[in-house]
Amino acid sequence: MGAMLAPSVLNADFARLGEEIASIEPFSDLIHLDIMDGHFVPNLTFGPVVVGAVKNVTAVPLDCHLMIYNPPEWVEAFAEAGADRISFHVRSCRDMESVIRAIRNLEVSPGLAISPEVPVFELKPYLGMVDFVVVMCVYPGFGGQKLMPEMLARVGAIKRDAEELGVAVEVEVDGGVKEENLLQVLKAGTDTVVVGSSIFEAPDAREAACRIRTILDGTRARG
Ligand code: DX5
Ligand code: ZN
After folding, report:
1. Which pLDDT value is given to residue 74?
2. Which of 75, 127, 163, 167 has the most CB atoms in a 10 Å sphere around its CB?
């Protein structure tokens, strides 16, 4: 199977969020929602209320990326708001295993995200428990940053670690993905691409999402 597209609305026009989502919906496999608490990352976004509002206007599954400390306190609220997948960060809490279990018990797909400064071996003990890993190719906090190409090697490294353990894990790449580097990102073995500013800061978000979809479908057809 080819890669999935998860547009991140972080750089969308929040006063017109419903319209922004409607414009990219036909080309999207997931909607990526960046939740930031102003502590774990130096930016503040939105919480379960906005996730619930998005849920009401789209049938596309919601991919909630928590960049917050103390995720156990919040996973239930995001699940209730309509999250279909919840990822949280390595080093964001003490007992990551119990958070993964809590997310799964809420019938939400659990994922772990890893920032560039965190070594990949810290993920390994959890690879058998999560459905997906989010490889950050920028320091989390803001859209519109440049992809750190050296992070792409992590995709293969994580897949090899998973294979060694006899488990399957899907890898999502987040941060700095744009049309110009999409093939490079896919070549690394990425299953899901998050694309934020390259869609929502394009002159026409719908056209940008459509072009990215076409590239993904093209690589899919070539197998
Ligand atoms: C960064 C966020 C990303 C971001 C992606 O902290 O996790 O999801 O919105 O935006 P671009 O594609 O602009 O890097
Ligand atoms: Zn994100």
Report:
1. 98
2. 75
Domains and CATH numbers, the chain: 4-222 (3.20.20.70)
- Regarding the beta carbon of 43 and ligand 1, being less than 6 Å apart is answered no
User: If you measure from the C-alpha of residue 208 to the centroid of ligand 2, how many angstroms do you get, rounded to a whole number?
Assistant: 19
41 CA: nearest ligand 1 atom = 6
Spatial separation of the C-alpha atoms in residues 96 and 163, rounded to whole Å:
21
How far apart are the CA of 163 and the centre of ligand 2, in A? 25
Question: Ligand 1 within 6 A of 82 CB?
Answer: no
Residue 219, pLDDT score: 84
For residue 65 and ligand 1, the question of a CB distance below 6 A is answered with: yes
What confidence score (pLDDT) does residue 223 get? 43
pTM for this predicted structure: 0.97
Mean pLDDT of 135-139: 99
Task: Return the ∠ at Cα 20 (arms to 18 and 24), rounded to 5°.
Answer: 115
DSSP-assigned beta bridge partners for residue 179: none
Out of 37, 63, 174, 191, pick the active-site residue.
174
Q: Which residues of 85-106 are buried (b: 16+ CB within 10 A; e: fewer)?
A: bbbbbbebbeebeebbebbeee
